[in-house]
Specification:
The complex is a heterodimer of chains A (111) and B (113).
Chain A lengths: L3 E4 L2 E5 L4 E7 L6 E7 L5 E8 L4 E4 L2 E6 L4 E6 L8 E8 L5 E3 L3 E6 L1
Chain B lengths: L3 E4 L2 E4 L5 E7 L6 E7 L5 E8 L5 E2 L8 E7 L2 E6 L8 E9 L2 E4 L3 E5 L1
Parallel strand pairs in B: 2-11
Antiparallel strand pairs in B: 1-3, 3-8, 4-5, 4-9, 5-6, 7-8, 9-10, 9-11
Classes of the chains: A mainly beta (111), B mainly beta (113).
Chain lengths: 111, 113
Amino acid sequence: KQEVTQIPAALSVPEGENLVLNCSFTDSAIYNLQWFRQDPGKGLTSLLLIQSSQREQTSGRLNASLDKSSGRSTLYIAASQPGDSATYLCAVGAGYNKLIFGAGTRLAVHP
Amino acid sequence: GAVVSQHPSRVICKSGTSVKIECRSLDFQATTMFWYRQFPKQSLMLMATSNEGSKATYEQGVEKDKFLINHASLTLSTLTVTSAHPEDSSFYICSAGGSYGYTFGSGTRLTVV
């Protein structure tokens, strides 16, 4: 059974810091891996999608890497801003287009 | 890009009543939609996979008679929470997509009193 773990569970940093959020999964047989952002009481916003054949994806200040063999992905946020404060969710694509989510990392960036 | 619209965003109902949540794909056809449930400070847990024109596939531990799913068209899936109880209070969210990405609705906060 696929299990997804995110570390740390919560993170509080001053504005401007570069951050690394970690995601690990137990079964390397994944179709893809996706990072989402969730604001309190809101739905999910897709940030980056990495296909199983890819190693990384970049969008603006965000960079996500994928190492299937070791069952790990990292989300790198450069020059963090207060507007980045949210919960970041990692999800792996399993069979039949299912997504299996980690518990998330709650990020707070203070001015 | 693909948009999934979910309604209502919030609903409060009395214990014992039923509540229907709608999930619509606005600019694309979705043969498959997914329903998730999220408890406070916890991750999303897949409840069921909604298939257009056929029965939904439920995850282990999810009562299919309590959480009725209907996917009557390529753009609409509904989740009905029947005979709701306070323990059903949660955040319910739908999604559509596949290997090229997933789009989520904005979620429904259900409170059963």
